[in-house]
Specification:
The protein is an alpha+beta fold. 29% of the residues lie in helices and 37% in strands. The protein is built from 3 helices and 6 strands. Strands 1, 2, 3, 4, 5 and 6 form a 6-stranded antiparallel sheet that branches. The protein is globular and about 40 Å long.
Length: 105
């Protein structure tokens, strides 16, 4: 009975772990959920800065996607999140869209 409880608890926690994936577009956020344009620009390595408007808020977004014969090059949300924090974004996470696949870092 205890084993079943422990197993159920452990499995329920796996859904809360933030998974890494590749995305075409990401931007940094502050703790209030608002985009941080300066951190986004500083975090956008090998990408293009584009302007986007969502729900009446215009902000900078990093776009990186290049398809190659053997695969593609896109933004890892986990790496982008770390760069955002390093570059001054106070939010716990970055915001990414247009998922391309699973990342392993």
């Amino acid at each position: 009975m205890k084993l079943a409880f422990v197993l159920t608890a452990a499995l329920s926690l796996t859904g809360t772990v933030q998974a890494c994936a590749y995305y075409k577009n990401c931007h940094c956020q502050n703790s209030d959920g608002m985009p941080n344009d300066e951190a986004t620009k500083a975090s956008c390595k090998k990408g293009d800065i584009r302007e986007r408007t969502e729900m009446g808020v215009t902000f900078k977004e990093c776009h990186r996607y290049q398809y190659y014969f053997f695969g593609y090059d896109a933004l890892s949300n986990c790496k982008f999140r770390k760069r955002c924090k390093k570059n001054g974004a106070s939010g716990e996470d970055s915001s990414c869209r247009d998922k391309q696949g699973k990342a392993y870092s």
